Amino acid sequence: MEANIRYIVLSRIFRSLPLSYMSFLVPLYLHKIGIPTFLIGIYFLIATISTSFLLVLSGFLGDAYGKRNILLLLSILFSLNLFIFAFIKIPLVVFLTSVLGIGTASGGGIGGGAGGGPFNPLQTALIADYSRPEERTKLYSINFAAATISAFAGGLISDLITTVYPPSISYSLLFTLGFIISLFSIFFVYLIDKDHGTGKISIPKASFSSISKISIAGSLGSIGLGMVMPLIPLWFKLDFDATESEISYLYSISYSLVGISFLFADKIEKVIGRVKSISILRGLSSLFLLLIPFSPTFFIASILFLARGVTYTITIPMRQSLAMDVFSDKERASGTSITGLARRIPYGLGSLISGALFSVGLFTLSIFLGGVISLFDPLLYYVFFRNYEKRE
């Protein structure tokens, strides 16, 4: 593995570990230091807006002034966020971390909790810059697998500390540990060779068509997923009386399987082809999603949930490779920022729709409709890029 790529992966490992437990620790800590529930909601609204803004800004600044430089700046902001949580107990100052948009639950899940969010356009483009096209899917798979396993390890560490120590001590320990670990992430980003940007911020033109196609497909898929994923733990509890520990265990298994599955992405792609793999596997993922609301037991629903997670996330490295191939090398970071935003906003819209349906008891309808809408993602990928392999 090329040295720069090794540094990128290592920096993500050390960032993903604290991010994994920040996602659930932050709201609990805000409540502990006396911030009202209403303001906690405002905190995450601000954090989500800030994250979306940084997601776009990071890519455009990276293409203009160097992706390594902007990634280093974001890594420093992430450490600053953790420093405030670890050592500053003033509620107003802690609340202002929402403006940073980094290191909170706003990233969420595998894409954010494992080190995605505003970091993603930069590290994705940097890996493309320092690799050959034929090895990118494998490298993206390794990067995702390492981040996911690191996030899983972070979850285990937080479980251990919160079990052994009372909240007054465990919060401080986890935030301090996170701050120390984040310094290693900064160190490895610093070791990456400096890349040279274009020197000016500009709207992607050469890659406009490809960016638009990936954005359209991704946005429809994200609406569907947004209608299901945020509230499916609640559905497990309401429909099957699943306990918090059972749901937590299910998610832990999901993280483990996803981390392992990434390592097979390159092999599947070489056998089936990149676009066909994305279309077939994401199509299967949507079908599993459609079947979940008709599950007679929590066990069957869990199997379908795990199968959906693996068949969807295993295509992420393939999608990244496809994007890097069809984007201009001078527009990779900004293009990834735009497509990332095109997924984030519709996901929020889907969550809003599902919240409304859940509030009137239409749990099954929300999940089923989400599965139907998510089918447009693999369908459009095939329609837009079906001739891609023929050009290779």
Automatic annotation (TrEMBL):
One of its GO terms (molecular function) is transmembrane transporter activity. It comes from the Archaea. The keyword Ribonucleoprotein does not apply. SUPFAM superfamilies: MFS general substrate transporter. The chain crosses the membrane at residues 12-30, 36-57, 69-88, 94-119, 139-157, 169-193, 214-236, 248-265, 286-307, 356-384. Pfam families: MFS_1. Residues 4-389 form the Major facilitator superfamily (MFS) profile domain. InterPro entries: MFS, MFS_dom, MFS_trans_sf. Keywords: Membrane, Transmembrane, Transmembrane helix. This is MFS transporter. It comes from Acidianus infernus.
